[in-house]
Amino acid sequence: MSDPFRNFFASKMHIASGKPNGHSDTEGTPPDAKQRLHIAACALLLELAHADDEFSESERLHIEAVVRRHLGLDDDTARALMELAEEERQSAADLYQFTSLIRDSYDDGQKTLLAEIMWGVILADGQIERHEGRLLRKIASLLDLQPGYLAEAKRRAATDVH
Fold first, then answer.
1. Residues with Cβ < 8 Å from 38, sequence gap 6 or more?
2. How confident is the model at residue 87 (pLDDT cuts 50, 70, 90)?
3. Contacts of 104 (CB under 8 A, 6+ apart)
4. How confident is the model over 92-133, as pLDDT tens digits?
5. Do 139 and 95 contact (CB within 8 A), yes or no?
6. What is the DSSP string of 39-53?
7. Is residue 44 predicted with pLDDT exceeding 90?
């Protein structure tokens, strides 16, 4: 059975050929693999946004803007990605399916950029809850991201917020 929502997303994602601003985390990556990476990254952002049991409007808007900017998506496609990633996040047994895909596909610079984006999500509502920081450290560990990179990502994210 064909899912029109997934078909819409798949057709839109084939148009996006990489990251804007010269960033291309998946050059040479087949479209389906690129889509899985986008869903995985978005699912991690959503997991962080839900870590404090409150998905605020500022967090939603922040994630949507980041997805549009870093993945080069239009508004409708960004929202479709978020909906699909939310479905995947809710049905996932744990974070490993997302982190292992990203760990094996991103270099340290790309993982650090993702960590900066994740810190931005945490800071979007103006406060860092204990659970959010702990979850981000767990995700960073699963991504094999060194603590120094995580600290630098936090510093840059905090600078961007202020």
1. 13, 67, 71, 81, 85
2. very high
3. none
4. 999 999 999 999 999 989 999 999 999 999 888 777 778 888
5. yes
6. HHHHHHHHHHHHTTS
7. yes
The pLDDT value recorded for residue 17 is 34
End-to-end Cα, the chain, rounded Å: 48
Cβ burial, residue 12 (10 Å; 0-12/13-18/19+): middle
CB 24 within 8 A of CB 18: yes
Q: What ranges in the chain are assigned the alpha helix state H?
A: 4-15, 31-50, 57-71, 75-91, 96-105, 108-123, 130-142, 147-161
Number of neighbouring beta carbons within 10 Å of residue 20:
14
Report the CATH architecture of 30-161.
Orthogonal Bundle (1.10)
156 exposure class (CB count in 10 Å sphere: 0-12, 13-18, 19+): middle
The answer to which of 10-19, 80-89, 95-104, 123-132 has the lowest mean pLDDT is 10-19
Q: Is the pTM of this model over 0.85?
A: no
